[in-house]
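Forum > Structural Biology > Help requests

Title: Can anyone predict the 3D structure of Alpha-protein kinase 2?

Hi all, first post here. I have the sequence for Alpha-protein kinase 2 but no way to get a structure on my laptop. I'd be grateful if someone could post the structure tokens.
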Amino acid sequence: ECYVQNTAREYAKIYAAEAEPLEGFGEVPEIIPIFLVHRPANNIPYATVEEELVGEFVKYSVRDGKEVNFLRRDSEAGQKCCTFQHWVYEKTNGSLLVTDLQGVGMKLTDVGIATLAKGYKGFKGNCSISFIEQFRALHQCNKYCEMLGLNSLRTTHQKQRKATSMKSKNLPNSSTIKKTVPKKAREPRDFISSQH
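Reply #1:
Sure, ran it for you. Structure tokens for Alpha-protein kinase 2 below:
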């Protein structure tokens, strides 16, 4: 938990260094640090400690990317969180995604990281690779993505889908391929009739 959150925090610091100087970008989301505390006299010898966040707790992105959250799409913090995800995705060539962004205002905690199956630079995340795929398919760029000059994932995703469909169009379809099977090898098909 500490390793994941503090790794995401390091990415957030680099993101802030690139975004804050941009005219009109404003405040940048911050992932708060989390610390591991050893308590040898306690039944549970280890615990995590982090800053208490006071205010309305909002999920700006969810682990699986399926949930539609209007606060994510419509609020400044939500848009900047989505841009942060896009930025990390682009910086790591699609190998890593910070997800499950949640917190109070621009202060975030309890984040997750998804990586490709092999990991990224020796780091393996705590979320499924499917989150990366869903993010790529569902992300909608906003003005902050544009300010950072991030490439549209929609265009990339559509190009990939178009190339795949073009390949399948170039392949002969099953109706144009004649299959010859010796008569002895043919077996009668079983048809199951269903009565409702």
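The two ends are 53 Å apart (CA to CA). The helical segments are 2-19, 70-74, 76-91, 130-138, 143-147, 153-170.
Shout if anything looks off.
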